[in-house]
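Dear U.,

Please find below the material for section 3 of the report. The protein was modelled together with glutathione; I have listed the sequence and SMILES used, followed by the predicted complex structure.
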Amino acid sequence: MRLYDSSISGNGYKARLLLSMLNRPFERIEVDILQGESRTPEFLAVNPNGRIPVLELDDGRILAESNAILYFLAEKTPFLPDDSFARAMALQWMFFEQYSHEPYIAVARFWRAHLDMTPAREAALDEKMTQGYAALDIMETHLEAHDWFGNDAITIADIALYAYTHVADEGGYDLSPYGAIRTWFERIEASPDYIPISQV
Ligand SMILES: N[C@@H](CCC(=O)N[C@@H](CS)C(=O)NCC(=O)O)C(=O)O
């Protein structure tokens, strides 16, 4: 199994973290997204959408989209509940992550930490911050009443949401008012075979 990944990507980290927690060996290929390596003809033949992460199975099948990769890897493991409602709840939070969270929190981090802050990005930043804080508020409210997203134990929904939330400060978000989120970070970080985002 081969993972096309980037050391600066939270989406790639989701797959790396789950693979570590599952003790699944894999070959990791670093794709330098800042140098356009995800947009070369060779990479576009792997993923026409020009983005990492991409999982290549030993039989050559290719799977893109971080949350689809999590879903595939978690099948028949405790990270994906058997119960159909619990499974759908995990998916609910993963769709939330992709539509209401990642486009704001991940993008603000990418702009501030890895790209130049152009006038166009500066103009769009207020909206990113407002929408990102709205997502954090929803997570905080959920975590005030529950230990995890999606089930009564860690699932792929937690991994999907943790990846960019725990580095939201790199995008300029102040996490200090979010006590329930910070306690949830500690629960995830205490899980067996947890690895930090910096570990590739
Ligand atoms: N929805 C996708 C987003 C993937 C994505 O945005 N990947 C970024 C890195 S985090 C990327 O490859 N950017 C390089 C590019 O767009 O050329 C997922 O969850 O996997």
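For the text of the report, you could mention the following: Residues 6, 9, 11, 33, 38-39, 50-53, 65-67, 98 surround glutathione (CB under 6 Å).

Regards,
Y.
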